[in-house]
Amino acid sequence: MSGTEITDELLEVAQAAAQAGADVLSRRNAAELNAINKSGDGDWVTSFDIAAEEAVRGVITAARPDDAITGEELGTSLAENFSGIRWSIDPLDGTTNFIRNIVYYCTSVAACDADGNWLAGVVNAPALRRTYWATRAGGAWLNENGTTRRLPGPVLARRGGILGTGFSYDEETRAEQVKDFLPMMKGLSDMRRLGSAALDLCMVADATLDAYGERGLNEHDWAAGALIAEESGAWVHRPKLASPLDGGPSEPDRLAAWVAASATDLSGRFPI
Questions:
Q1: pTM summary value
Q2: If you placed Cys at 205, which of 39, 76, 108, 151 could pair as Cys (CB 3.0 to 4.6 Å)?
Q3: How far is 268 from 184, CA to CA, in rounded Å?
Q4: Residue 250 lies in a domain
């Protein structure tokens, strides 16, 4: 199978898997959230996170049983006859938004090879009726309300530039993020914190945001969105993974994802 054929196949599976997760989220019922804290105040997991991940895994496993899967809620599963392809899943990125019925949440699904090259990624935001996707060297795309278009990427030297970012639930990490904030704002005029790293990255790809930066993300937060942003023409810095085969962890205290029009835009912003 050629490189194009494998990426096309992975994209098809990723689209179906992300849709399955998004379908679970579309059935949101406040009475059935069953939200609990995972690691600290505000770090929620709900019954919908779990159900969406199970739905995503079901689609991937049925289509490609020899692939490995890393998910936010259910960990990493390695196939006995490992194909060399690993999936990274965030079944519900923006859980706090989801709980509070704020529309910025999504299912994120991405696939990488044994060398850590990201080959296909899909971000499905059901409340926004948007699905973003990309394949390696295949561009970035958006289907919104049934209409598909190629994404333009960031706009160079646009006045009034807007930064997307986020903040950790962990107090120490959050303190470091606050220190990062002013350097990242260099040359930009405003900031938005929408609550979903995957969607922030996609919004750089569709030129809603001009840049995105955040310390301390997990791989599943940025896997699909970073590929989509990169394929739109943005410059992306990803953290190094301990192992591309098992999904992590990322290097500690390193910038998880910064998206800008070019590498030169990073001058003085962050130690990467």
A1: 0.91
A2: 151
A3: 8
A4: yes
* pLDDT of 253 higher than 50: no
Q: Alpha carbon 48 to chain centroid distance?
A: 18
Strands across the sheet containing 130-135: 75-77, 68-71, 86-93, 106-112, 118-125, 130-135, 140-144, 147-150
Cβ–Cβ under 8 Å, residues 111 and 10: yes
pLDDT tens digits for range 148-173: 999 987 776 567 788 888 887 778 87
Rounded CA gap, 83 and 225, in Å?
24
What's the pLDDT tens digit per position in 84-124?
999 999 999 999 999 999 999 999 999 999 889 999 999 99
Whether 144 and 231 map to the same domain: the answer is: no
Q: How far apart are CA 101 and CA 192, in angstroms?
A: 18
How many domains, the chain?
A: 2
Q: Is residue 11 located within the same domain as residue 69?
A: yes
Phi-psi region of 94 (alpha: psi -120 to 50; beta: other; left: phi over 0): left
